[in-house]
Structure formats: C-alpha cells, structure tokens
Amino acid sequence: MEVIPAAQDYGLGVIPWSPLHGGLLGGVLKKQAEGGRRASGRAADSLNDPAVRTQIQAYEDLLDKHGLEPGEAALAWLLTRPGVTGPIVGPRTAGQLESALRAVELELSEEVLAGLDEIFPGPGPSPEAFAW
C-alpha cells in the first residue's frame, strides 16, 4: 500500500517480482482440471484456502468469458497500474515467454478491469487503509 505511492512521490518506477504469484494467476485451476501441471509451492499453499480458491475461480471464469488467457491478462493488468514500469517474469518455457510478451500488446476492456477490481478489491488507498 505504501511502496508504490512512495516510489511515485520520489519519481521512481516499481518492478514487481513474481507477478503471477507463483503461477496462481496463470490459469492454475483450468490447467489442473485439464490434467495439466498441478500447483506447487506458494500457489498450492494459497489454493488450500477456500476463499482464495473461490477468488481464483471467479478470476479464471471472468477471463474465460472474455476469451483472455489468465497469465497474459494478469500481466496486462499490472502494466496498467500507475508507477509500475514492468514486471519481472520467470518463464520456464518458450511458450510462457511468448505469452508474457503478448501481454504487452493486450488492452483490457473497462468491463474486464471492473470485474478484476470486484474480484480483487485490494485494501484501499493509503494512508486511509492503514486506519483501524
């Protein structure tokens, strides 16, 4: 909540690390349902929480409705955030690298952006969000 506003205030850019949260935002539930690679590490731990699993399912459903790939949409969304200059991606395959590169050209509609805000509302603006 405070890092990006501080960076903006000082004229710095932010380069987020692990923007897909260890694969959690890369379509993990759909991949699992299709018999693909199972979530591991941080993503698997997060999916053990029913509230997170419900949130990720809503995220994947929204993007599927709009014909978007989850990983590409997540990176494209991140690139719309003020102060973010570019994410650090860690592709394992050439296909994942190509997907990350497609995200640069992807423009998300207002409907998709609003849906993402509804699914992932965030804590609110700082410093107000720090108040009890």
Helix-residue proportion:
40-55%
| Mean pLDDT, all residues | 89
The count of β-strands is 0
Q: Return the string of H and E elements.
A: HHHHHHH
In the residues, how many domains can be counted?
1
Major sheet = none
Rounded to an integer in angstroms, the radius of gyration calculated over CA atoms is 15 Å
Shape: globular
Taking the alpha carbons of the first and last residues, their distance comes to 15 Å
Helical stretch tally: 7
Q: Poorly predicted ranges (pLDDT <50, ≥5 residues)?
A: none
**SS-based class:** mainly alpha
- State which percent range the strand residues make up: under 5%
Q: Can you walk me through this structure?
A:
By secondary structure, the protein is mainly alpha-helical. The protein has one domain (15-122). It has seven helices and no strands. Helix 4 runs antiparallel to helix 7 (110-119). The longest helix has 16 residues, at 50-65. The radius of gyration is 15 Å and the shape is globular. The model has no long low-confidence stretch (mean pLDDT 89).
Short description:
This protein is an all-alpha fold and 132 residues long. It has 7 helices and no strands. It has one domain.
Index terms:
single chain; 132 residues; mainly alpha; globular
Chain-wise SSE layout:
Layout: H1 3-9, H2 28-33, H3 41-47, H4 50-65, H5 70-78, H6 94-105, H7 110-119
Helix pairs in contact: 4-7, 5-6
